[in-house]
């Protein structure tokens, strides 16, 4: 119950938009695949209040991290009652209960530990979530790991504490709402049904940055600590993720002269102008960072007739994953 557990309590901070978060615009949807990347550098979360600038121009692209949403199986729903959607992020899965006004956590599963919120689900978002008012809730259930089993009880909170302009690398997003999420849980032995003597704690703080054009957060960062003295566990973990799009846009600003897509706008196919000899694969992304198509660069033209009319990012890469070219095109 170490790293992944800490990351999940905060890194599931991936839903919402500027000024007001709503169920229609920001609840996760089964079938969605969200392309994130870890960021290199430290996220600057210091700005608070109205009309601020979130300055993160020094962040650069790290390794890929794919998040998928799907419908829980009947067995999963039996284990985590009330679950309506699950999020899978690597080896970790989070179960949620989505209602007309709330998104609640019902369970967290990873190789290190399981948290089952079967006594009292924890509210993640209560809609609408607007700048200013704090949302507070309690949570309670059971935990299990290879080292110990027991009970947990504590609080969860969300507050949109800032809005303004977000800068990531060379990319700028306006009208961004920043939400701060906190979780504070005490851990108890399984026989301590009165929750009298905690044997450990889990604390977590996460920041998520949303704009009106994306269902999921543009950028999120998490810092958490788990402490169980009886098991000699005391670990602090920090991580940060940004939508793949934020780096595609940054790379496009830097390298757009090196990759030209034609025709643009296009209806049935696109090709490339310039030297693409060292590139073998092309990935096409929607503007929210979702991978929608993969093709072989060496095949010449790439068919796009199956794509809905919209703007897209295209990224070509070769054997060296860090050597990529990116640009934007329009499908008519």
Automatic annotation (TrEMBL):
Cited Pfam families: Por_Secre_tail (PF18962)
Domain Secretion system C-terminal sorting: 261-325
Coiled-coil segments: none
Keyword annotations of the record: Signal
Signal peptide: 1-19
Keyword Signal included in the entry's annotation: yes
Name this polypeptide is given: Por secretion system C-terminal sorting domain-containing protein
Species name: Chryseobacterium rhizoplanae
Organismal lineage: Bacteria, Pseudomonadati, Bacteroidota, Flavobacteriia, Flavobacteriales
């Amino acid at each position: 119950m170490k790293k992944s557990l800490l990351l999940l309590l905060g890194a599931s901070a991936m839903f919402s938009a500027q000024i007001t978060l709503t169920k229609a615009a920001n609840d996760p949807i089964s079938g969605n695949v969200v392309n994130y990347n870890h960021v290199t550098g430290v996220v600057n979360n210091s700005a608070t209040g109205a009309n601020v600038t979130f300055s993160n121009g020094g962040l650069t692209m790290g390794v890929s991290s794919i998040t998928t949403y799907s419908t829980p199986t009947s067995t999963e729903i039996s284990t985590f009652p009330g679950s309506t959607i699950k999020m899978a992020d690597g080896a970790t899965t989070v179960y949620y209960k989505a209602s007309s006004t709330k998104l609640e956590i019902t369970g967290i599963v990873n190789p290190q530990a399981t948290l089952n919120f079967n006594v009292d689900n924890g509210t993640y978002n209560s809609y609408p979530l607007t700048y200013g008012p704090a949302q507070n809730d309690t949570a309670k259930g059971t935990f299990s790991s290879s080292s110990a089993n027991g009970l947990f009880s504590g609080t969860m909170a969300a507050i949109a504490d800032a809005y303004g302009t977000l800068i990531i690398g060379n990319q700028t997003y306006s009208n961004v709402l920043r939400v701060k999420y906190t979780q504070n849980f005490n851990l108890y032995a399984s026989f301590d049904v009165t929750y009298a003597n905690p044997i450990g704690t889990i604390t977590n703080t996460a920041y998520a940055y949303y704009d009106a054009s994306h269902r999921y957060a543009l950028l999120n960062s998490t810092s958490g600590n788990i402490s169980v003295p009886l098991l000699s566990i005391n670990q602090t973990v920090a991580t940060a993720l940004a939508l793949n799009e934020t780096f595609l846009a940054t790379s496009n600003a830097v390298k757009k002269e090196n990759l030209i897509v034609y025709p643009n706008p296009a209806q049935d196919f696109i090709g490339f102008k310039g030297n693409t000899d060292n590139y073998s694969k092309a990935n096409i992304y929607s503007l929210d960072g979702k991978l929608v198509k993969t093709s072989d660069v060496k095949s010449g033209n790439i068919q796009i007739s199956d794509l809905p009319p919209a703007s897209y990012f295209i990224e070509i890469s070769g054997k060296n994953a860090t050597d990529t070219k990116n640009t934007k095109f329009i499908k008519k």
